[in-house]
Amino acid sequence: MTGLVALLPMIAVLLLVLPAPARTPAADPTTVLERRIPADNPPPGAELYQAVLDFEPGAWTPVHSHTGSSYNTVLAGDVTLRQDGVDQTFSAGQGWVDAPGVIHAAGNQGSASARLIATFLVRPGRSPSTIVTPDPGAMVPPAPTTVAFFKLHASELAQPLDVVHQLVNLGPGVALPLPIEPGPRIVSVLDGSLVTAQDGQLQEHVAGDSWAEPDRATADPTAGAAGAQVVTTTLVPRGGPVSTPATQPAAPVQLSGR
């Protein structure tokens, strides 16, 4: 016992001089998929919409058209575009562009759930979509579920530009870098939560919430304790960089929480 007491001062000195254990840095964001879509001649002073839709098997949008170009990317599962009597099916990471005024519908003919992001660039004051009224007595399939929706006035857009869709996974405490380019970005939380900072105020965003950058945040949004999955629309000059690198998925993307 006397020997142990004698060692205590030496142990205390060692604790003072030994370096503290190194903290493991947070991992980087994982870009699950990225799709870059050329956008020519966006309308001046355009309004930018982002919608995320979930399609259960058998779900279809109403037959409709758009007042401006619509840029669509499948995030999970398979989504079918029906136009001019022809069906074309797109898988995760693929997509299409709807030209203004073209009548079409999109739906899920498969047996698994699907998810789609649609970005619209329309003239100010116009609704992004015009629904075609179905014939009386026509069978109307179930509609998709809107997971997230956000509208932003996007002034002074680059000419020409790219619409970039990214699906990003963030581990606990991992930050989503702010855009490199000054063009607008819309972020929608699909799973988990993120915290943004503006004017010294912190705000938590959960699944279904959306916001715009750079106006909304002054620091990188950071994932909460359970991590997060987000989808973003970024408008950049043609060929310009965005904030996170892209890695295409080797296997079909699974919906979060399903």
Descriptive account of the structure:
There is one protein chain. The protein has 258 residues and is mainly beta. It has one domain: Jelly Rolls, CATH 2.60.120. It has one helix at 2-17, and strands at 30-39, 47-55, 64-66, 69-76, 78-83, 86-91, 95-98, 105-107, 114-122, 129-131, 145-153, 161-170, 185-198, 201-206, 210-213, 222-237. The strands form four sheets. Strands 1, 12, 13, 14, 15 and 16 form a six-stranded antiparallel beta sheet that branches. It has a five-stranded antiparallel beta sheet with strand order 7-4-9-2-11, with no helix packed on it. A hairpin with a 2-residue loop joins strand 13 and strand 14 (201-206). The model is unreliable at 10-25 and 244-254 (pLDDT under 50).
Terminal CA distance: 60 Å
- Point out poorly predicted stretches: 10-25, 244-254
Number of helices: 1
Task: State the CATH topology.
Answer: Jelly Rolls
CATH class assignment: Mainly Beta
**How many strand elements?**
16
Along the chain, the helix and strand elements come as: HEEEEEEEEEEEEEEEE
Please indicate the percent range of residues in DSSP E strands (runs of 2 or more).
Answer: over 45%
- The helix content is under 10%
**Rounded to an integer, what's the Rg over CA atoms?**
23 Å
User: Overall pLDDT, averaged?
Assistant: 84
CATH architecture: Sandwich
**How many domain regions?**
1
Question: CATH superfamily membership, which one?
Answer: Jelly Rolls
Structural class: mainly beta
